[in-house]
Amino acid sequence: MNGAASTRRGARRALDQWVWVLPAIGVVALVLTWDRDLPGALYLLVGAVLVGTVLAAVHHAEIVAHRVGEPYGSLVLAVAVTVIEVGLIITLMLGKESVDTSTLARDTAFAAVMITLNGILGLSILIGSIRHETPRFNPEGAGGALAVVITLTTLTLVLPTFTVSEPGARFSPSQLAFVAIASIVLYGAFVLLQTGRHRDFFLPVAKDGRVIDDDHHSEPPSNRATFVSLGLLLVALVAVVGLAKAVSPGIEDVVDAAGVPQSFVGVVVALVVLLPEGVAAAKAAARNRLQTSLNLGIGSAMASIGLTIPALAIASIWLPTPLTLGLGPVQIIEFLLTVGVTILTVVPGRATRLQGAVHLVLFAAFLFLATTP
Question: How far apart are CA 109 and CA 115, in angstroms?
């Protein structure tokens, strides 16, 4: 037993050392691969560095989050994901003149909603219910956040399918400006609610319904460690965006070779940028902090719409192709089904394995239909 424990401690120490080095390795890889055609084998190596850099970003974001406490900590990863997502979408749209990238923003944003509301929430609920029977969360906080996500997604991704001011599933410039402003207002209102008078709605809940104000089992990091982690987090985010652009030709080649629609590239982009949220949410669920998992999952969906769409609306002035944001019929049905199931999950304030399984099946159906529409 002592030998096994010593091995685990050694592995953890090695991991702790690597997370301080990986952001620098990511930047070096970015410099070496920027704007260059890579041989096929190098795509795998750069992809491995990308995943490692994302995991390092998770680690440093968690340090910052632990220092500032909940619910502010959940906002750290949400904003980080938005930075990655916007940067990646813009660089891909600017770098692919021969390919129609007008739907990349829509595909990525919708994939982010489906990944967070079904994949991350489903996995977190399943892990939490297996480890802690029926973990509790605050339905007021989760329900309020879900209402904002539903409204944002409907305004930005569903309505363009039915508007008639522009050909195709597109907003006119004035409509795009309106939904961008509305998205910022809604997101800002939610942040004020989450960090202000109703902060308790977003704090972890014990089995007896008592609000857990913070993780008292461990000391928060020092100011110096927090600022170092914040700096390395920013470095890692830059490296992630650049490396994802470097491996995107390899992803697109694989998509073409597999006969999968190009829209699946948006799904891959969303999976990459949401990996930190997924890892952090699963770890929180394992610690019986399911409310934190919901904050991360639903908050990421909210940030992917409420911050990404306004940023892209401004960037559309310089982008070579217009933004096609409207969802197709299959995607709208998937979204409506997800909304109904998520509402039924949130209302009781307690999670079961069945709820986790339902969300994960919906996530699998999304991935399957994305590859075979």
Answer: 10
Inter-residue long-range contacts of 40-44, CB under 8 Å, 24+ positions, other chains counted: 40/250, 43/247, 43/249, 43/250
- Amino acid letter, 240: V
Is the CB of residue 204 less than 8 Å from the CB of residue 70? Answer: yes
Mean model confidence pLDDT for the chain: 82
Please state whether the peptide bond connecting residue 329 to the residue before it is cis, i.e. omega within 30 degrees of 0.
no
Residues 6+ apart with CB under 8 A from 137: 204, 205, 290, 291, 294, 349, 350, 351
- What 3-state class would DSSP assign to 204? coil
Max mean pLDDT range (167-181, 243-257, 260-274): 167-181
Q: Is the distance from CB of 170 to CB of 323 less than 8 angstroms?
A: yes
- Owner of token pair 């948006």: 266
What is the reported pTM? 0.83
Enclosing domain of residue 284: 2-371
The two most distant CA atoms of the chain are separated, in Å, by 70
Domain at 70, CATH number: 1.20.1420.30
Asked if residues 148 and 78 have their Cβ atoms less than 8 Å apart, the reply is no
pLDDT score recorded for residue 206: 64
> DSSP characters for 97-125?
TTS--TTHHHHHHHHHHHIIIIIIHHHHH
Place of tokens 């987090």: 233
pLDDT at 30: 86
The amino acid present at 299, given as its one-letter code, is G
Alpha helices in the chain (DSSP H): 2-33, 40-68, 72-95, 104-114, 121-132, 139-153, 173-195, 223-257, 264-273, 275-286, 290-306, 308-315, 329-346, 353-371
Alpha-carbon distance of 257 to 259, in angstroms, equals 5
How many domains, the chain? 1
Name the residue with higher pLDDT: 284 or 90: 284
Cα–Cα distance for residue pair 42/40, rounded to 1 Å = 6
Cα gap 274→61, rounded to integer Å: 13
Phi, psi angles (nearest 5°) of residue 186: -65, -45
